[in-house]
Amino acid sequence: MAEGFAKAYYPTVTVTSAGTHPTAVNPLAQAVMAEIGIDLSTQYAKSIDPVYFAQADVIVTLCGDARDHCPVIPISARHLHWDLVDPAQATGSRAEQLTVFRQVRDQIKARVAELKTVVPIEA
């Protein structure tokens, strides 16, 4: 979801997301992003590429698992950690899971929108 927002808000910036244990893009993430007009259908799960990671200007980790299992953050990169609930761990009915995905989506949306006030981004 963060990659989708970042690409929408900052089209001139190279943005990619990766995971410590990537799986397929969650269909519920696709659904809640589609609700607000952001299409994740071309996104796919990627592992952290150490070369790309080492060259990144800004690295954002989104949950405790990522913070705890990421490779060492390069000194040259600005690191932001957003301690968000992992919506993929939501339980309950589909409606209850969608509620969690929407809550996390909205938190990510606000944080990605604020990035330009935290780091130099040419939008």
TrEMBL record:
Pfam families xrefs: LMWPc
Name of the protein described by the UniProt record: Phosphotyrosine protein phosphatase I domain-containing protein
Domain Phosphotyrosine protein phosphatase I, chain residue ranges per copy: 1-118
Domain of life: Bacteria
Keywords per UniProt: Arsenical resistance
Signal peptide: none
GO BP annotations, alphabetical order: response to arsenic-containing substance
